[in-house]
């Protein structure tokens, strides 16, 4: 097994990714991610200091349109897909006032 | 699988001329589905009633003297990651099970406007992450050529639906080979257009700088027509190229006389001998047709896999943050919002999706960004520059589409890296944004189909289709 990533690292990543994971899942993920990172070390041999990062295939420009009203999604149709709705709004459990 | 399939072009010309009824065409395909779908599982949902209504409307339009459009009455299947208003769109994930989008994807709108009849939503690897369709939350799709083998992925349901005669045409999405690899394994044509040619508005995002929609078909001409129908600028996608769809139908008979076909001499090894044999036969066939085979180098090609499996999961970890149990899809109740997010995502995502979210989150996290994501973006540049240098010497490049023919179920499910290697030859075109397609070119081991991949420079669809049409003529 690779030493590139520890179970603690993986547990932190799972919290950042908002994924509940059991101890067994964390151990399995550590092993699999370690193997992948080992394989991905092939690019370490490349000289990349002077290479400009490429984030997408083409140069993107801001796309703007005239500030005029156009039809948008139907509010009731959108809300109908939500797990819980109150007063024509999305409803969620308490955000503050509880642990974590 | 029936030996003879009617092409989309034949169906549309018959329906437009009033010689065939769209309802009859649909019923033939629904009968094929009724007979074969139990063994194949190409679909998450068959839209029998909606399709019958659409086909009847096409026939009524023809009877009234109107032209329903270039795909009049053509039964089309859509990968279940393209939004269809009021019709479930699941991405083969439990987290979106039952979700009905409030709008149609642009490709769906354009297909309907062209007279196509949407017959169903096809199975995929969950959120398009996989190369075998085994990662679907609703069970795998089976290869119509051998139901003990995978159809490829992630657009396995779309590839199988055309191969099995359930639809004349289908659409998939290709982020790292998810159209071309299943096309090769199912013996059909599959095209990933240039990034920006087909709008992604309404395509559920996986990796936004790589995702592109494209067709599956029995013939190169059908794929060309499909690109012309769905391609072209869309204000709804800010990455859409502001020009019309490429002109790829009129050039199909041009031949390849004088074209330079590039052989990549430093291509990563790993393709099976039967696949290499078909690739060599393709070079020979094009040389016989008057093309010139030239040697080129693409040194960074071999690093594509690493760059892709750092970039795509990074973008996915961001795109999939939206599945939080608030606005749509699954929610697992918990006493506070953060616990609800964590429980919902743990229950709703499958193993491969979690693996990629974790990998991407790690590659983007403080302290590792430069070493992984940042470095991968630089490798992406090297690959693109290498391609551009190769295209100074060659008009197109030829490679295998897949390292092997269709493999048995379970062959690679315990080893994620082995599965990722299926994408070795397809990934670099997604990183550069260039077009590429797989064309069936004979059979390999066990009599299973082999696809040859044609790669072309950005917006090089016309030359790519010329070569594809020539290979198709010489394959038979």
Walk me through the structure.
The complex is a heterodimer of chains A (100) and B (476). Chain A is mainly alpha-helical. Chain A has a domain at 7-45. Chain A has three helices and two strands. Chain A has helices spanning 7-16, 23-40, 75-79, and strands at residues 85-86, 89-90. In chain A, strands 1-2 form a two-stranded antiparallel sheet. Chain B is of the alpha/beta class. Chain B has one domain (1-476): Alpha-Beta Complex (Amidase signature (AS) enzymes), CATH 3.90.1300. The longest helix of chain B has 21 residues, at 370-390. The interface between A and B is large, with 52 and 69 residues.
Short description:
The complex is a heterodimer of chains A (100) and B (476). Chain A is mainly alpha-helical and 100 residues long.
- Backbone structural class of chain A: mainly alpha
Integer average pLDDT of chain B = 97
DSSP E strands of chain B, number: 11
- Tally of alpha and pi helices of chain A: 3
Strand percent estimate of chain B: 5-15%
The major pleated sheet of chain B works out as: 11 strands, mixed
Kindly estimate the percentage of residues of chain A that lie in beta strands according to DSSP.
under 5%
Largest interchain contact: A-B, 52 and 69 residues
| Order of strands across the main sheet of chain A | 1-2
* Spatial arrangement of strands, main beta sheet of chain B: 1-3-2-4-6-5-10-11-9-7-8
Give the CA-based shape of chain B: globular
Report the average pLDDT across residues of chain A: 91
- The residue ranges of chain A in which pLDDT falls below 50 over 5 or more consecutive positions are none
Distance between the termini of chain B: 18 Å
Number of domains of chain B: 1
Residue share in helix of chain B: 25-40%
Radius of gyration of chain A: 23 Å
């Amino acid at each position: 097994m690779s030493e590139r990533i520890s179970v603690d690292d993986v547990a932190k990543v799972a919290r950042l990714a908002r994924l509940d994971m059991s101890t067994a899942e964390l151990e399995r993920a550590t092993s699999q991610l370690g193997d992948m990172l080992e394989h991905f070390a092939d690019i370490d041999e490349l000289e990349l200091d002077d290479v400009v990062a490429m984030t997408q295939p083409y140069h993107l420009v801001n796309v703007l349109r005239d500030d005029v009203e156009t039809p948008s999604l139907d509010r009731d149709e959108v809300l109908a897909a939500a797990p819980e709705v109150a007063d024509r709004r999305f409803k969620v459990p308490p955000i503050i006032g509880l642990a974590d | 699988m029936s030996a003879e399939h009617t092409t989309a072009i034949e169906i549309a010309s018959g329906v437009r001329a009033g010689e065939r009824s769209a309802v009859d065409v649909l019923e033939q395909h629904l009968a094929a589905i009724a007979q074969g779908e139990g063994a194949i599982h190409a679909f998450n949902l068959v839209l029998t009633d909606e399709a019958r209504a659409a086909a009847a409307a096409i026939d009524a339009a023809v009877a009234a003297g109107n032209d329903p459009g270039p795909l009049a009455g053509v039964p089309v299947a859509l990968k279940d990651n393209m939004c269809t208003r009021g019709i479930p769109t699941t991405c083969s994930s439990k987290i979106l099970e039952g979700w009905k989008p409030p709008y149609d994807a642009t490709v769906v709108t354009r297909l309907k406007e062209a007279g196509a009849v949407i017959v169903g939503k096809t199975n995929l690897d969950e959120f398009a992450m996989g190369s075998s369709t085994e990662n679907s939350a609703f069970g795998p799709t089976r290869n119509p050529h051998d139901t003990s083998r995978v159809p490829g992925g992630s657009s396995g349901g779309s590839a199988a639906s055309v191969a099995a005669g359930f639809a004349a045409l289908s659409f998939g999405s290709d982020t790292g080979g998810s159209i071309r690899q299943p096309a090769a394994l199912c013996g059909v044509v599959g095209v990933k257009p240039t990034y920006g040619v087909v709008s992604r508005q309404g395509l559920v995002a996986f990796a936004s700088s790589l995702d592109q929609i494209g067709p599956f078909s029995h013939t190169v001409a059908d794929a060309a027509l499909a690109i012309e129908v769905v391609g072209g600028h869309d204000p709804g996608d800010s990455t859409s190229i502001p020009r019309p769809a490429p002109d790829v139908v009129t050039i199909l008979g041009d031949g390849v006389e004088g074209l330079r076909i590039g052989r990549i001499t430093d291509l990563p090894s790993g393709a099976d001998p039967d696949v290499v044999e078909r690739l060599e036969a393709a070079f020979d066939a094009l040389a016989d047709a008057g093309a010139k085979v030239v040697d080129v180098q693409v040194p960074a090609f071999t690093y594509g896999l690493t760059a892709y499996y750092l970039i795509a999961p990074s973008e996915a970890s961001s795109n999939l943050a939206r599945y939080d149990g608030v606005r749509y899809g699954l929610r697992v109740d918990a006493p506070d919002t953060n616990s609800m997010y964590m429980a919902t995502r743990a229950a709703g995502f499958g193993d491969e999706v979690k693996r990629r979210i974790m990998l991407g989150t790690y590659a983007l996290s403080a302290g590792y960004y430069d070493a992984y994501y940042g470095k991968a973006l630089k490798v992406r540049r090297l690959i693109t520059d290498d391609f551009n240098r190769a295209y100074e010497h060659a008009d197109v490049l030829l490679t295998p589409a897949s390292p092997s023919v269709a493999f048995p179920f379970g062959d690679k499910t315990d080893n994620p890296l082995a599965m990722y290697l299926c994408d070795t030859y397809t990934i670099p075109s997604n990183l550069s944004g260039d077009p590429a397609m797989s064309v069936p070119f004979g059979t390999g081991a066990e009599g299973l189909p082999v696809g040859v991949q044609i790669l072309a420079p950005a917006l090089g669809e016309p030359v790519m289709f010329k070569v594809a049409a020539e290979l198709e003529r010489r394959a038979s």
